[in-house]
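Box 3.1. Reading complex inputs
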Amino acid sequence: MKRLPIAVWLIVPGAAALVFLMGGPVAVLTIDSLRPYIPGSIRAGEGYTFANYLELAKPAYFNYAYETFRIGLIVSTFSVAMGAPLAYVAVRSKRAVVRKGLLTLLVGLLVMSLIARLYAIEMTWGSHGPLAFIGAFVSGLAPRSPRYAEVLVSIGLMHFTIPIVALMLVGAFRALSPRLEEAAASLGATRSEAILTVVLPLAAPAMVSAYLVSLAMCISNFVAPLLLGRGVVVFTTNLMYTRFTDIGNYQAGAAIGVFMLIASFAVVYGLATIAKKLLPSVVPTR
Amino acid sequence: MKPLDLPLRIVALAVVATTVAFLLAPLLVACLLSFDNRSFLGPFPPKDFSLRWYRSFLDNPAYLDGFWMSVHVAVIAGAISTAIGTATALALADPRLPGRDAIEAVFLSPKFVPTVVIGFSLLVFTAFIGIYDPFVRLVMGHTIITIPFTIRAVSASLVALKRSHIEAAMSLGASEPRALWDVAVPAARSGIVAGGAIAFVLSFDEVAVSLFLSDAFTQTLPIALVAEMRANLNLTIAAVSTVFLAATLALLFVLDRTLGIERLAGDVGARG
């Protein structure tokens, strides 16, 4: 009998963990989402129904999903716009101290507690914070107004996504040989022209990937709107939690969970596939 | 290489400086506020300084109990995740493994499942199969959310490893497991350390999964902090944030000395 390669045996523990810790729970969640809700009871009713999903199509639910995506799109745009120059300087700066300083900052933020950072953002950009006037100036919203919570949540999410986006792009810029820019310069291009016509197009696939990862991380974020949203900015993830804790409606929570799961995968894999078909030279296969 | 033209250099400098200031300012503000001597949240900056909020942190049993619970969960979940991530990354580095791309996509998929969904589904699932111990539930939840990151970190460190290196060891008489242990595992050392560190940090800081899987007597530090922030926004949390900042700086120092921050940036960049 032919022996299985050792790689197959090495996969087994991970596969078992995946089936037991994700496959099983998601299957049970999906079944639960199809069970009817009995008001006042934590037990599901008999039979199966799509009622929990049909409820998600109501305007009230749609608005939560719309707000979640709207803020996610804005935050991801800023994250790539601010993270890309940071990553480029962290890779290409002539000064070793600048390169190391920026990389240390990015890795440090990646490993530092998000809760601690969200608290610090509330203290800095919140109603009494020393930078609230900048937030008010840029957004046109008074720091004490309820809608200012959108600014706080966006800042919280950007603090979370910029280091991730920048570190993804650090890898992409490292993979681009500086000789490409030198070649463009030897043909008469200025450094700016070399960056705009050589570096940016070649880094575009990584930037699209970073944008989609950032968007997926924003729409699935739970803690930033919970702590900075002041009850005004409520993401779909928060809605799922409140359906479970406040109303005890497990079935509605499960349906929102399945919707969130599909939305996250659609953003990461679906949009990447569509973008690849529309821009085959720009979006990478993986 | 030619320097940047002046206008673009100014724009690039402004964007980078603004981004760095944006990222650092909150940490500095929280750090300063943590030494505020006032008993209330007053205007910034504070005039008198003291360690009263650090004493308040140390006197609060909810924080200390939560801290140790977080450490226990993060150590166990991080160790399991690192072991599984290393084995999986070694398998994925083998070109003979059929369907590597599909297998990798499946193994990395928990990264894109919202943690709130993982927490909620594990709560329903563990109740379904009769696991009620919150500590076990927490370890289960924290393990699954960290596995993709350990796989990516170890895989990144194995990029330079070629199958011929393993085969060379085998041609000298080593069995395949022995060749992997003696050649591939040392090559993956930086990724294993980086993956373990990321797994520990992610687990230690996790909120959504813990919120669903913990109970009133088994609370992690982030859950205690979230409860405090929602109930009473005081400066004790500024002291905790500063402690986190100091711990992060210490961790960065150790990682820089052992692995090198530039190499680490490449490995943890895979976190995205």
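In summary: Chain B touches chain A through 104 residues (CB under 8 Å).
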